[in-house]
Design a protein that fits this description.
Layout: E1 14-18, H1 23-34, E2 38-43, H2 46-58, E3 62-67, H3 73-87, E4 92-95, H4 110-137, E5 141-146, H5 159-179, E6 184-191, H6 197-203, H7 209-217, H8 228-239, E7 250-253
Parallel strand pairs: 1-2, 1-4, 2-3, 4-5, 5-6, 6-7
Helix pairs in contact: 1-8, 3-4, 4-5
Length: 263
């Protein structure tokens, strides 16, 4: 990654990213920094988070990592406050922390269900709860909530995950309604199967990971996994002025998987 020396699409802005040490959030942190943003990264992987910060800093950008469990309101509040205290403003919120438990409803434990809801849906809610006032103090901004193609359609043995991501889709709409008068846009990002550690971990829960992987890619019209950098480009679009007339929308980046019946 190279930090641009000319004005970028997020030049002078401050972005708070949850889940920014790995997968989609990591790619987003690099991309935002390359476009001039100062990045506050919240996650639960100190070594990996430090690595992201080191790489961004070495390339001429600015980033800070803070241990953050999005299930805990005080930690999300502290993450937003740390960004505002350090840089004087917050302009972009990108909720990217997530988990992917598997199982039908009868097979899903209460703990796994609660983990999915508290992390995937609750993490988005808390970043909005504590971040939107900071955006308002800065004169407005953009909120990006990571949903999923599985927030738009169902999938086998994914009851808790689908429930949590479906909630993110409608939370996005509700937040957009409440925030428009504040100059704040709220949009949802719905990735398809993206080659991340979380997705690979999901495949490994199967008795036959290779066959499971093939089944997940089969509905994708482009016949491949997406890459984290492709989602980062979509997140950049939503964070920047390029999407200035979008709010309450779902941007689906799934290689066409949800566009057909598979016939």
């Amino acid at each position: 990654m190279t930090i641009t020396s000319s004005p970028g699409k997020l030049d002078g802005r401050v972005a708070v990213i949850t889940g920014g040490s790995s997968g989609l959030g990591r790619a987003g942190a690099f991309r935002f920094a390359a476009e001039g943003a100062k990045v506050m990264i919240g996650a639960l992987q100190p070594a990996q988070g430090a690595g992201v910060v080191k790489e961004i800093t070495a390339s001429g950008g600015e980033a800070v990592y803070l241990d953050t469990d999005v299930r805990h309101p005080a930690e999300v509040e502290a993450l937003v406050a740390a960004a505002e205290d350090r840089w004087g403003q917050v302009n972009v919120l990108y909720a990217s922390a997530g988990v992917q438990p598997t199982g039908t409803a009868p097979d899903t434990s209460e703990d796994d269900y609660q983990l999915a809801i508290d992390t995937n849906l609750g993490g988005c809610f808390r970043l909005a709860k504590y971040g939107i006032p900071a955006l308002a103090r800065s004169g407005g901004g953009s909120v990006i909530l990571t949903a999923s193609e599985l927030g738009l359609v169902g999938a086998a043995e994914s009851a808790a995950y689908c429930a949590s991501k479906g909630g993110v889709v409608n939370l996005t709409r509700a937040l957009a309604i409440d925030s428009a008068a504040l100059g704040i846009r709220v949009n949802g990002l719905c990735p398809g199967p993206i080659d991340t550690p979380m997705l690979r971990g999901w495949y490994e829960t199967s008795d036959d990971p290779a066959a499971f992987e093939r089944r997940q890619v089969e509905p994708v019209l482009l016949k491949r996994h997406g890459q984290p950098e492709e989602i980062a480009e979509a997140a950049l679009f939503l964070a920047s002025d390029a999407s200035s007339f979008m709010t309450g929308a779902m941007l689906t980046v799934d290689g066409g998987a949800t566009s057909w019946y598979g016939l």
